[in-house]
UniProtKB/TrEMBL annotation:
InterPro entries xref list: DUF3846 (IPR024559)
DUF3846 domain residues: 2-88
Pfam family of the protein (one): DUF3846
Top-level taxon in the UniProt lineage: Bacteria
Protein name: DUF3846 domain-containing protein
């Protein structure tokens, strides 16, 4: 089991324990895509790209210097597949609070 951080539109992020990729796909509502923000080194974002323009905006990201939006549910994970630490979750909270 690993700890991930789940951010739904208009809600605060919450730590969740998952056991496999099927659970992550269920959280994001289907097939997933892995993206990154230039300001969150070591952390990946799992999103459902089919939600783009269909579900509510969640928050903006900067990827390779370009501004983009995350739509629908977003799951933050460690790039190395380990659980997010408390320090990682605090970094994500600071990142998200700067986006509001």
């Amino acid at each position: 089991m690993i700890t991930v951080y789940v951010k739904r539109p208009h809600e605060s992020a919450e730590a969740v324990e998952v056991t496999n990729m099927d659970e992550l796909q269920d959280m994001v509502g289907g097939d997933h895509e892995v993206i990154a923000d230039d300001h969150l080194e070591g952390i990946s974002l799992i999103v459902n790209e089919d939600a783009r323009g269909v579900e509510a905006n969640n928050f903006p990201i900067t990827s390779d210097g370009y501004l983009d939006w995350v739509y629908g549910v977003c799951v933050f994970v460690k790039e190395d597949g380990r659980s997010l630490s408390e320090e990682d979750r605090l970094r994500i909270d600071q990142f998200l609070s700067a986006k509001v």
